[in-house]
Input
Amino acid sequence: MYEESTITTIGYVLAGLALAFVLRKVSVRLQLSLAKHRSLAGHSRMARRFASWLPFYEYDESSFFGVDSAPPPVIAARRAGFMRLAALFAERFKNTIAQTSALAGSVSDLEFTSRYRVPFQFSGHVRRHLMSGSFVQSSCGVTVTDLDGNRSYDVTGSYGVNVFGYDFYKECIERGAERVRDLGRVLGAYHPVTAHNVRRLLEISGLDEVSFHMSGTEAVMQAVRLARYHTQRTHLVRFCGAYHGWWGDVQPGVGNPVPARETYTLKDMDPAALKVLRTRRDIACVLVNPLQALHPNAGAPGDSTLVDSSRQAHFDRHAYADWLEQLREVCTQRGIALIFDEVFVGFRIGLGGAQEYFGVRADMVTYGKTIAGGLPVGVLCGKHELMRRFRDDRPADICFARGTFNSHPYVMGAMYEFLIKLDSEPVRALYRDLDDVWNERARRLNDRLAAASLPVRVANLSSIWTLYYPQASGYNWMLQYYLRAAGLALSWVGTGRLIFSLNYTEEDFTAVADRIVSAAEEMRSDGWWWSDWQLTNKAIKRRVLRELIQARWGWGSAASPMGSINSPRIK
Output
């Protein structure tokens, strides 16, 4: 009897422990779910499933100009404007387009970017009639010149490399090459300029050690690897929408063929994310890309996703600084490495980068893009205790990382020139009142757009800008072609990101602003921003969903939910 009672008691205890364990697991899982953003970008598995489900379809010529149920006169105006642009491009950019077309099917990067300049439903018709060139032959000041001799104001920023203007980087490369010419491309040993570069990088970052890499992606990879090595934990935290390079662990959703299993994607600027950091024991590091302050929890903007006008952006420096302070506090308490990925914003928003700009110190910082004076590089700066690649008491326990071209003499030479110029008065003058200058320019342009009743606005983080559209439309992506025709050089993401070099004078900027306003006015006059009370972002999304369902399963009709006069046909 006593034994039975004891066994029963033990059973109850074990059952209670099992229940407590299950409840704990459920609670932790629920906590993690609540810390994820509600969008697809916050749920990588769902995003991958959706991407695999999404069918291809495209609008034929008869429906291309009227998917929003615009009346016949508006459709005719759009068609005429489109064909006028097509003829202008074919004539003005003839040689540039011909050279680009000659590479069709041969360069995979070019194949990708040409296909994803606009929403895929429109892409085929645009590529057949409104071709863009990808070649330029020279740069000068804030302009680039293509193969046909057309000079355009450059707002591509060369993917962020161009902070101080192309002439600045030409000098860095030329002088740097001359400085290391006697050594040439000897690898493994360091050219003497490397010692200067290391000292300046440590002064700028406020950290203890440096490692050199070939790209920003490599630098971030090494930062995460070292954090895992020293904390003996498995997982990294990234925030929804943030970009940290193209490697698997930081790109867990669409674009990565293999799921990232040791990555938590959490909501940016949200207390639920901090709760996860406080309670989980498997987090090695937190990655922060300060550029996300411009569009928290949203992916990098590009015109290929402009199916409606829901894209938004807004930068609040104080709110983001407060968020970073909270992150810093939690990471310190929990022994989590806080990594600032400044590959893009480093040296663009301030001499001391995001650490100085937001007033928060990181454990590790990555740099890239501009710091090698225009040549490829990645740099990781960090605290001694995180940068060491071995353990004193375990000689076989190492964290291996090398690269054939790390510390390449020509890269180090150009970096030396960059860092020397960084200390010069002309460059330091560019940083004085930097935010005030660029915020005022954005305000002036927005005032001009509003005064002209044009449905486009700009948002900015210093000299990094994006365009957004306050009026519902399915044709906002067309603006990039009017801007190119007006004399602006854009990157393949179109109006999603305009990156100005800091050497833009007031005269240069006014010329760009004039072109943006005139391009928008021409686009409006060609009917692309026609609207009526039934045309809302919700209605546009509903129509696209109907089209997707029809293309996937053949259900329903592809017609506009507003009862279209010119219902879009799907090829």
Summary: The mean pLDDT is 92. Residues 2-34 form the longest helix (33 residues).
